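Note to self: keep these together.
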Amino acid sequence: MKRCAKCPDPAGALMWFSYRERTAWLRDLDASFDRFVDYPLCRTHGDRFAPPSGWRLNDDRGVVPTPHPVANVA
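Structure:
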């Protein structure tokens, strides 16, 4: 079980950032965790997270991908 990087609670989200883009992302915890890039956060710390001044935050937690429509082939 992954633990939050800020407290002993279980992680529920992953945070990572790009200095070049001045953007931070939050996403749901999944199997693609990379310990060199992602910072695990519990729900509380994920909800409280605020990026540095002048940065953007993309919060993708709980976002379900929309399937592409299938073209009718007759």
